Amino acid sequence: LKASEEAVQGHEARIAGVVAQLESEQKEVERLQKEIKQSAAVNKTALDSLMASQKTLERERTELQSELNALREAEAMRKDQEGNEQNKALEARLVAQTREVDAAKRIVQEAEELKVQLELRQARIEELEQQALDA
Description:
single chain
């Protein structure tokens, strides 16, 4: 009888240890989920902002390209110094806008990489949850 009571107590102790470990892992999973949600929200906001900026820059670039083409036509007709200076200024603006678009594209790419990292973390959390449930 005493041996069986000791065995029961041993099993209860092991069960209590497993329950404590599961609770600890659940808290960690909840913390990671919260962190992922916050990160996802920040990344989504940044991505949305970058996409809007990229669209704006593309639109401005198209407008500048149209303006540049018009100036080139006018330059061919007039061939005066003032037209050349305006053309150079527009070309400089176009180059600057192109650089900004390229920078925005790089930021979008970085945001996409962060999204991939986020998905990997979420998969890991799901794996940990499954392990916790299996244990």
